[in-house]
Amino acid sequence: MPFISHVTFHRAAAPIDVIASSAEIMGAVPCLRRGLCRLPLTILESEKEWRARIARLRHAMRSLGCPVDGRLRFAVVSDDATGPFASELSNCLAWDRSECSIVFAFGSLASVRSTLAAISPDVIIATTASLPLEELRGLGKKLVAIEHIDAMPRPPHRVDRLLVCDELSIIAAARAGEDAYRFDRRTLLVEVEPQSGRLVVTTPGFTLFALVRYCLGSGFVVVGPGQIGHV
To answer: How many Å apart are CA 174 and CA 172, to the nearest integer?
Structure first.
């Protein structure tokens, strides 16, 4: 299957030029940081693709020992730039009957800490980089950091991580101290593109948006069944 390059999207006059059927539009995939998405068009999705995105989130949270089954209380720490992403993440967790609150880091660090203390979450998911992760430790039983695929920190990794790209949302997860990210093989196919030698992911059976293959860029390798690594 071929790549669909950025040039294809830039030449499109409207989203209708790059999707299969406008009748299947259900919603859009929010980018992690508003204003920094590389694509010029909103990533649209059908119900089938939305359910696949939910499945990837469930798989990622199970990989971190945080099943989304209604038994855990979540809190997403966000800011203005990551607000849409945090809101969608909260909606996806709530879809599986998990209690989830959004805490915006608009005020002082003390106010964020007091709000989290009042919520008493089992899991804190930090989508913003405006607060040091160390300041959030101890306010929940588990701390999870969001990593963007284009700006990943170097090891050592001291917290659990969710790997995100703007085109697919959450795609994989890794525990603290691990370099391998686990992904859902039912909703993502990961392979080496023979011409470039780079690792690419494919969304099988897409029905709406023409995102067929996504290049992870240099530094990613397959390290085992259902696992990718970043070197």
So the answer is: 7
